[in-house]
Write a structure and sequence with these properties.
Strand content: 25-35%
Bound molecules: nickel (II) ion
Number of strands: 7
Number of helices: 3
Helix content: 25-40%
Strand order of the largest sheet: 1-2-3-6-7
CATH class: Alpha Beta
CATH topology: Peptide Deformylase
Radius of gyration: 16 Å
CATH architecture: Alpha-Beta Complex
């Protein structure tokens, strides 16, 4: 396994719509990418990581949001498609491509997502709360949308100001 480099905003790949993973791409290379993404995510102590965040402009992400406390819950979602989203939750959100930025973001509280697993098999996940937040955040990454775009205007300006400050001090590359 290998650790991948996580790119930071405003790297163009983060603002680009990812390409769907084609049928003939469900192979060892994809499995290796997924394993490396899990390793990279755990090392960075995140609960989700999308391919564009490691410079790969493709529609897939990995996540681990435990259902039972302490129990790992690894899921790789390839070609995720949000089927339904409903309700509302307001909570703090972070992103490995925005180190040090934690901001309140409004999201739907429940979502149903269809995706393919690493073997290409169709799957569906119906989830709520933190897992729904993670699925929506990571699917956004596949669409070239970052959580900055989901903030209120005020929070976005505050976040941008903080990013500029971090860039100046060289703590953000
Ligand atoms: Ni993110």
């Amino acid at each position: 396994m290998a650790l991948l480099k996580i790119v930071h905003f405003p790297e163009p790949v983060l603002l680009t719509v990812g390409k769907p993973v084609a049928e003939d791409e469900f192979n060892e290379n994809l499995q290796k990418l997924v394993e490396d993404m899990f390793e990279t995510m755990y090392t960075a102590e995140g609960c989700g990581l999308a391919a564009p965040q490691v410079g790969v402009s493709k529609r897939l992400f990995v996540m681990d949001v435990p259902v039972e406390k302490g129990e790992p819950n690894r899921i790789a979602l390839i070609n995720p498609e949000i089927q339904m989203q409903e309700g509302e939750q307001i909570g703090d959100e972070g992103c490995l491509s925005f180190p040090g930025i934690y901001t309140t973001v409004r999201r739907e509280v429940r979502t149903v997502v269809r995706y393919q697993d690493v073997f290409g098999k169709e799957q569906e996940l119906d989830c709520t709360d933190l897992m729904a937040r993670c699925v929506l955040h990571e699917t956004d990454h596949c669409d070239g949308i970052v959580f900055l775009d989901r903030m209120t205007v005020l929070k976005r300006e505050l976040a941008k100001r903080k990013i500029r400050k971090l860039q100046k001090t060289g703590k953000w590359d």
